[in-house]
Specification:
434 residues, 35% helix, alpha/beta, eight-stranded mixed β-sheet, 17 strands, Rossmann fold, VC0802-like, 14 helices, elongated, nine-stranded mixed β-sheet
Length: 434
């Protein structure tokens, strides 16, 4: 019997989906995606996936346990046409699924719960707040019918979508009693689920600003580091190399993933800072067996220090260029890229030498906004192929259920852009295999 789980991704949903697919594939976990959207994914599994898996992922915000589903046309009829019979049918679905029974098991006299609506069906998105209030009121009525008092969490008026954040779910302690209800509306099917796991931003924040040494301007967030580690098929016991390690953010996430790590940096201060940060991590997270070493050296000659075919995977972010105060012109952005290109090309040649056969390289290259509104990127495809690497396309047809129409544009994705609105230079993330 196949088990289903529902996943709520972060802002960059394609990157979140690629991480999830890579994480499962690397562990030989058979899965099949039944629905993919920017709002949520629904996947089935041949074996149980623990809720604690969310701690191993950087791009998944919530994991839900589906307890019921119904046709989306019923939801459309209920809220677009205001059909009372359809509304009654939704209410009956909620009453008869395990949500009410689970809440009735709760010890407090007054139950506190939340409802989040995720809507992939465009026609219903403007009605999400109305749907959220309907679901909440329905649950309250059902609990009252069993003589149980309850209250469901509201939202600030300026919130665009009625969705509880991971911080709110954690602070209100809604995970353990499964007291957050997810109402997820797809184009054809709608799922009702309860949250069984939530991303803990406080732990990632601790590893970001709580470590002894930081480089705020150049820092890669721990969350993104964890995503890239999973894209690299880094599983426990493997040797991960970061030859531009900085203060060791990628290395610390790899150690938490139970990998062995080697870092290298040309800056002596970074070498010392990374060592101190990893010693801190070892103490803070009780990792007595943590296996790491940090080397001082140039990534363009790293094979001399590390040896040939030593690393199972390489995850790294070389220099992305100067910290820009303003969005540059296109010619200036091209000048930045040309200046960085020898560093990248020299590193790619060395990476091929150091990686084991079938090892993965997850590499960040600059993605520079310009005043012409055309992004300038680094063309590395020719160099990658010339060196002997193959590009990895993380979305494969076999990842999706037979009845799912997988867009060709999705399976053709070869890189992912990660950039915030305020940033002038973002990251383009590539996956290669030897």
């Amino acid at each position: 019997m196949q088990l289903q789980l529902l996943f709520i991704p972060g802002k960059n949903w394609r990157l979140s989906l690629a991480e999830l697919a890579s994480f499962l594939e690397a562990r030989r976990k058979k899965f099949s995606a039944h629905l993919i959207s920017r709002d949520f994914f629904v996947c089935s599994f041949d074996e149980k996936i623990n809720a604690s898996t969310i701690d191993d992922l950087g791009g998944i915000i919530k994991i839900g346990n589906p307890v019921a589903n119904l046709p989306t046309e019923t939801v459309q009829s209920a809220f677009l046409q205001k059909n009372r019979e359809a509304q009654a049918q939704i209410a009956q679905n909620i009453a008869s699924c395990s949500i009410i029974a689970k809440m009735l098991e709760a010890k407090p006299d007054k139950i506190f719960f939340g409802v989040s609506v995720y809507c992939a069906e465009k026609s219903l998105r403007p009605l999400s707040k109305i749907i959220q209030r309907f679901i909440g009121s329905t649950i309250k009525r059902e609990l009252a019918a069993h003589n149980k008092k309850s209250k469901f969490m509201g939202f600030a008026k300026d919130r665009k979508q009625p969705q509880l954040s991971h911080v709110e779910v954690l602070k209100k302690n809604l995970v353990e009693p499964q007291a957050e209800v997810l109402f997820c509306i797809g184009e054809e099917q709608t799922w009702i689920a309860t949250t069984i796991a939530v991303h803990n931003p406080f732990e990632f924040q601790k590893r970001d600003i709580g470590k002894p040494n930081q480089r705020k301007i150049f820092a890669m967030p721990p969350r993104l580091s964890r995503i890239m580690i999973n894209l690299a098929f880094c599983t426990p016991g493997k040797l991960l190399l970061d030859p531009f390690c900085g203060v060791g953010t990628v290395l610390q996430e790899a150690l938490l993933a139970k990998a062995k790590v080697v870092g290298m940096d040309i800056n002596p201060w970074c070498v010392k800072a990374a060592e101190e940060n990893l010693e801190w991590l070892k103490r803070e997270y009780n990792l007595p067996e943590a296996d790491f070493r940090i080397l001082h050296g140039d990534a363009r000659s790293m094979a001399q220090k590390i040896g040939w075919e030593q690393a199972d995977c390489i995850v790294t972010e070389p220099d992305l260029g100067p910290a820009l105060r303003h969005i540059p012109t296109e010619p200036y952005a091209l000048k930045i890229i040309r200046k960085l290109q020898p560093l990248y090309f020299g590193f790619i040649e060395e990476a091929y030498k150091v990686l084991k056969k079938s090892g993965r390289l997850v590499l960040v290259t600059p993605y520079i906004k310009t005043r012409s509104e055309r992004a300038v990127t680094m063309e590395i495809e020719e160099k990658i192929l010339e060196t002997g690497f193959q590009r990895v396309y993380p979305f494969k047809k076999e990842h999706f259920a037979e009845d799912v129409k997988v867009p060709d544009a999705l399976t053709a994705i070869a890189s992912f852009v990660d950039i915030e609105e305020r940033h002038k230079i973002g990251r383009e993330i590539h996956i290669f295999q030897k």
